[in-house]
Design a protein that fits this description.
The protein is α+β, with helices and mostly antiparallel strands. The chain contains nine helices and twelve strands. The longest helix has 22 residues, at 206-227. The protein starts with a strand and ends in a 9-residue tail after the last strand.
C-alpha cells in the first residue's frame, strides 16, 4: 500500500483488495480522523447495489471516499447524486485534462484546476471551439461525449446508453462517516451493456482520474453545503436517463409502468401512472428501469 494526500483526502493506494468499501468500513472501525480515499488497482470481491458483484479487473478505477459531514440520515441519499455529478463532470473533462496547457492559454489563466475550467467551457463552448486551432481535437471529443452522458437513477452513469460507472453508499451504524464507493471503467468494459473511457479514444491512469474526481466532488459538495440539494437535483435532472419517458420499474415481485417525471427533494424517483397517480420510489428499494 502507498499513502499520500490530495485536496483534503488521505489516499491509500492498494494493488489488490477484496473490496474498497470493505477496506473503508474497516478503517472507520479503527477510528480514522481524516477524510480518506481507498483506491485499488483490482478488486476480487467488488460490491454493487442490492448485493450484486462488481466485476473489477485491473485497469479501471475502484475507489471508496470516506467523508465525515453526514449528521442527518435523511441527507445520505443526496450524496449518490453528488457523486454521480462528480463522475459526470470528470468524464466530460477528460479531453480538457489532455490539453490543460492549451486551455490556460485560451482562458488567459496560469493557475487553475480542470474542474474550474469545466463550467466556463460549458458556458462558452462555441466561442472556445472557434478560438482553438483546428488541429486541436479535444473540443470535438468533448462534444461527442457531452451529447450522450446520462445519469440513471439512482446510482449509474451512462455514455451512449451504456454503463460506465456505478456508485454504492454504505454507512456504519452510529457513525457520521459515510463511504461512497465509485467504480469507473477506464480500459475494460467487463459486461455487455457497459463501456469504458478507452472506447472514446482517451487514456488516463486510475490515480489521475481519482484526483480529478476528488476535485469535482469537493466542488459539488461545497455547492451542496452552500445551496442545499436543489441545485444538485436540477443538474442531475438535466441529464437524467429516460426522464419524461415511459418506463417500467420492478419493485420486489411487482411491475409498475408510467412516466418518469422527476426526482423529488428526497431523491425519490417520481413515476406518474396513466391515471395521473404518482408513485414515489426510494433509492434503497429494489428495482430495475426496463
Amino acid at each position: 500500500m502507498t499513502f499520500k494526500t490530495f485536496a483534503g483526502f488521505h489516499i491509500h493506494h492498494y494493488k489488490e483488495v477484496v473490496s474498497t468499501n470493505i477496506e473503508a468500513l474497516d478503517l472507520i472501525d479503527k477510528k480514522i480522523a481524516n477524510e480518506t480515499a481507498i483506491i485499488a488497482n483490482k478488486q476480487t470481491g467488488g460490491k454493487g447495489r442490492t448485493g450484486k458483484v462488481w466485476i473489477s479487473p485491473e485497469g479501471n478505477l475502484y475507489v471508496s471516499l470516506i467523508i465525515n459531514q453526514v449528521t442527518d440520515i435523511n441527507k445520505l441519499t443526496e450524496f449518490t447524486f453528488i457523486a454521480a455529478l462528480a463522475v459526470g463532470s470528470t468524464l466530460l473533462s477528460l479531453d480538457l485534462l489532455q490539453n490543460r496547457f492549451m486551455m490556460r492559454n485560451v482562458l488567459g489563466e496560469t493557475q487553475a484546476s480542470t474542474a474550474e475550467y469545466l463550467d466556463v467551457f460549458e458556458e462558452h463552448r462555441q466561442v472556445l471551439t472557434t478560438k482553438l486551432p483546428s488541429e486541436i481535437g479535444f473540443a470535438r471529443g468533448l462534444l461527442k461525449s457531452d451529447l450522450h452522458l446520462q445519469y440513471k437513477w439512482p446510482n449509474d452513469v451512462l455514455i451512449d446508453n451504456k454503463k460506465i460507472s456505478g456508485i454504492l453508499l454504505e454507512k456504519k451504524f452510529n457513525s457520521n462517516w459515510l463511504v461512497i464507493g465509485i467504480g469507473i471503467n477506464i480500459t475494460y468494459a467487463p459486461l455487455p451493456g457497459t463501456t469504458c473511457i478507452s472506447d472514446y479514444g482517451n487514456s488516463i491512469s486510475n490515480i489521475d482520474l481519482l484526483k480529478e474526481l476528488i476535485i469535482n466532488f469537493n466542488r459539488l459538495r461545497k455547492q451542496w453545503l452552500l445551496c442545499g440539494f436543489y441545485d444538485i437535483q436540477k443538474m442531475w435532472l438535466k441529464r437524467a436517463f429516460k426522464l419524461n419517458e415511459q418506463v417500467r420499474i420492478r419493485l420486489a415481485d411487482k411491475l409498475y409502468t408510467g412516466t418518469f417525471t422527476d426526482i423529488d427533494e428526497y431523491g425519490r424517483l417520481v413515476l406518474q401512472q396513466e391515471d395521473k397517480n404518482l408513485i414515489y420510489f426510494n433509492v434503497g428499494e429494489l428495482f430495475d428501469i426496463l
